[in-house]
Structure formats: C-alpha cells, structure tokens
Design a protein that fits this description.
α6 links the parallel β4 and β5. 50% of the residues lie in helices and 9% in strands. By secondary structure, it is α/β, with parallel strands linked by helices. The structure holds zinc ion. The site of zinc ion has 7 residues, from α14.
Length: 481
C-alpha cells in the first residue's frame, strides 16, 4: 500500500516532500530537490521582487524572455508587468531572445547570448515557456557550475514538465539531448497567467504527462535488464494517482475548468520534480519521447517549426501504450532465441548511421546518435545473463508493471475528451506520414537509454511490419498518423 502522503504530494510544499522522500525505503537512491520555493496560485507573480530578494541582496536583474506577446486573463502584458514590478526595486536589463523565424531554439548558441549579459548581474528572471526555462537553466549553470546565478522562472504556460527539474533539453549538433543543468531556484506559476495561455499549450502539458504510463515502465525495464540504474518507485508513485484523476477530468480541462487547471499545474510540476529525484529524465521520458525527439530533429530538413512538445509526445504516447500492451499480452519469452538477440557493433553502426544521415550534410547527427547507441549496445552485450533471467521470470515482471500501464484505447479516449490532438497530421506543425513512420521505426537507434522498443528490436519483433500494425491499431482509435 502506497502511503497517502506520497500519492497526494503537493509541489508547493517542498519541505514536506523532502520529508516524505527521506522516509522511503532505499531513500539513498533519491536525490535532493535543489529548489527553494514553488508557488502555484492566483497573483503569485506580484511577489516577484520578494523572490529575488530572498535570493540576493544585489540590485541588478537580468530579465530573459522570448519575442512573443504574453497576456494574462485580465489582458495585461505579462512581461511588461514583471518588468514594472522589478523596476520598483531593481536595475533591470531586459534581454529578448529572438531568431529570424521568431521560433527560439534551446541551443548552446542562444545560451551564450544570455551569458554575454551576465556581467554584474545578481539574479536572472526568466519569463516564458519550456525553451526560455531550459536556456536560463543551461546558461547560468554552464557559466558557473559551482555557484550559478540565482534563477527565478515565471512560467507562462503549462506546456511541459521541465520547469521543475535540473536538466535542459538542448538542440546540440542538430540532435535533441537532455543535458544536466540546474533547477530554477524559485518557480512562480500564476494561474492568471497560465490560464490565459493558448489552450493548445496547456493541453501540451497534459500531453507531456501521458508519458507517465510508459516512461516509468521503460525505466524499470532498463533497470531489470542492467541497462539503467537507480530505479525507485517513489518518483512515479508521487504522480500516478493525481495523473489518473487528471485523465478522468479530461473533459473539464477542455472546458477550461480552473480547478483542473490548478491540478494540472501541480501534477506537471511534480512530474518535473520526479526527474530531479531520479537525477535523470527517465521517470518522465521513455520511448514516447524518443519518437517525438526524432520528429523534432527532422524539422530542420522539412523546413517546418517544432510542434508543441507535449502534444507530440502524447500522440507518440498512444504508440508506446500499444507497444507495452503488446509486450504484456502477446510477447512470448519462450519463443526468444537468446543467441540471436545480440547484433554486433559492426552490424549496427551502418544501420544507425543510415537512419540519421539524411538529417544534415556533415554527418553530425548520425555520428552523435551512433556515439550514444554504441554505449547501449555494448551494455546490452555485457548484461546477457540479466536478459536470460528476465525471460525466465517474465510473469513476475508482468505482475509488477501491470498497475503502472494503461490501455492505449483508454488513453486515446481521454485525449479526445481533452481536445488533445491524437494524430501527428493535426499537430500545430503537421507531421507527414513518412516522417512519423521514420521516427517510429528508428527512434530506438537515437540514444543510450533503453526502452521496450530496444527489447522488441533485439528479439526480432520490431520491424517495419510491426510498426505498420501499431499504426493500424492507433488508426482504429482515431489516432496515430
Ligand atoms: Zn517531456
């Protein structure tokens, strides 16, 4: 029985959360949450000066934003409001990041532009969505890892879970990479601001949480097979029940119900914290995220923008639920020929490189992916005995993970009710069938982290026909391509 305090966790009570985690069995596997305060509520942004004051006696604030206009539910310009508040007590340098196509990317180059303004700065205040947050975390951390500048983030949409974790998803050499960075010191979520965000952005946060039904099981699977480390149940136990309630309230979320929006803010923030507790993104990023990452990587070649992260993850999440449903109901461990499950490095290198070589002229994406995949394959070879053991005890594994997954049909039904896009072709930058199918086929070749797709690939199940079957089953739910 999971304790009530854990399943009803409140992201704004960090001390209580630390206490709950310290009381867990194997608490030594859980990392401390390096945040000072999280506020979720109405008019919380009015206390932005108090937030800065709590972090520094200094007087110079660097305010970092993107180029787009953001208004709150009362119609006020949010960035100007924050600047006006800050200017009452601080000297403010407002830096607007922009790129020619007006879509700001989380690249080390943009982080360097932020760092170039750090001279004499006492505190950074980032106002925006996931990209601005990732850039501020990355820029401050890599400027001074031992003593990064205090960072206050004013979150403007419930678009992703990454506001409350200690990593940044960066576009490095054209490849999406999750890199260790730092937590915001203080996170401010004003329901009057996020409540005015475009509905598709908040539905994106709801979509990011669909990973709750696949990423933790991928994480557990990797640990059982010796391919990952430090699995702990608490990070996911902390959000599963509240996530379930959110799914049940999908219709209300679509209708803009203020209470459900507040619940979404809490669960999404907890989901970010779950990654911090694990000190890796595994609790919230499994096979569904890699499919989505590949689509992002192809966007440059396709000359299209990058879709809202969570909406794209959720469509991929339906696929991942189908894959898990296959593993738990149709996979036959006795049919596996163990010796055929270990392709050599020489065999895989050209396959991995061929999958990504079309992304750029310099082979940098292909080389980056192979460098990471090579580590996974080497580890897979080294842990053969664990896989043998897994096959022998497959029923035990199934019994453990069964409560952690959901039927794909149920997830798709909830997403329809939430008005969340269920097909790649209706995302805010529509993804064509060829790109989506490529992403599904090749996602397991992109990174070091093990998922259910690796298991199916090494056992000979995962191929183009299998992907086609996933597409057909999703189509039956009015989802997929
Ligand atoms: Zn995500």
């Amino acid at each position: 029985m999971i304790e009530e305090r854990l399943i009803r966790a409140d992201a704004t009570k960090l001390d209580e959360l630390a206490e709950i985690m310290a009381a867990q069995e194997h608490a030594e596997l859980l990392h401390p949450i390096g945040m000072q305060d999280i506020s979720i509520g109405h008019k919380t942004v009015e206390k932005v000066c108090d937030a800065v004051k709590a972090l520094t006696p200094g007087k110079k604030v660097l305010m970092v934003t993107g180029p787009t206009l953001i208004v709150d539910t009362a119609g006020n310009n949010v960035k100007e409001r924050v600047r006006d508040l800050l200017e009452k007590e601080y000297e403010v340098d407002w830096f607007v990041l922009s790129e020619p196509d007006s879509i700001v990317h989380a690249t080390p180059e943009n982080a360097a532009k932020i760092q170039a303004r750090f001279e004499g700065v006492d505190c950074v205040v980032g106002i925006g969505g996931g990209t601005i947050c990732d850039l501020c975390k990355y820029a401050t951390f890599y400027f001074n890892k031992d003593n990064p500048l205090p960072l206050v983030i004013v979150q403007t949409a419930l678009s992703v879970n990454a506001f409350s974790d200690n990593s940044s998803v960066m576009l490095i050499n054209g490849v999406k990479r999750t890199v260790h960075s730092r937590y915001p010191t203080i996170l401010i979520i004003d329901l009057g601001i996020v409540g005015a965000a475009p509905a598709e952005m908040n539905v994106s946060g709801y979509g990011d949480l669909i990973a709750t039904w696949t990423a933790p099981v991928d994480w557990y699977l990797g640990n059982v097979l010796g391919m990952g480390k430090n699995f702990h149940t608490a990070p996911s136990d902390m959000i599963r029940t509240q996530c379930e309630e959110l799914l049940e309230n999908s219709e209300k979320l679509a209708a803009g119900d203020a209470k459900v929006l507040g619940d979404l803010a809490n669960v999404l923030t907890l989901s970010g914290l779950s990654m911090g507790l694990a000190d890796e993104s595994s609790p919230a990023s499994g096979s569904e995220h890699v499919m989505s990452h590949l689509i992002d990587m192809a966007s440059g070649v396709r000359h299209t923008g990058i879709c809202y992260h969570g909406t794209q993850v959720a469509v991929s999440g339906i696929n991942s639920c189908i894959i898990w449903d296959y593993l738990l109901n149709d996979f036959d461990p006795k049919a596996v020929d163990l010796d055929k499950c270990y392709p050599s490095l020489e065999e895989m290198e050209p396959k991995v490189k061929a999958a990504f070589d079309w992304l750029d002229d310099t082979h940098s994406a292909a080389n980056e992916c192979w460098a990471d995949y090579e580590k996974k394959l080497t580890k897979w070879h080294a842990n053969k005995e664990k896989f043998r053991d897994f096959l022998d005890h497959f029923d035990e594994f199934k019994a453990t993970v069964a409560p952690w997954v959901k039927k794909p049909e149920y997830i798709a039904d909830c997403m329809h009710k939430a008005n969340a896009p269920c097909r790649y072709s209706v995302l805010n930058f529509p993804v064509d069938a060829k790109t989506a199918t490529w992403a599904m086929n090749n996602c397991h070749l992109m990174r070091n982290r093990f998922s259910v797709i690796d298991l199916l690939f090494y056992t000979g199940v995962w191929n183009e026909d299998f992907v086609q079957k996933i597409i057909e089953r999703a189509d039956g739910m009015d989802a997929g391509l």
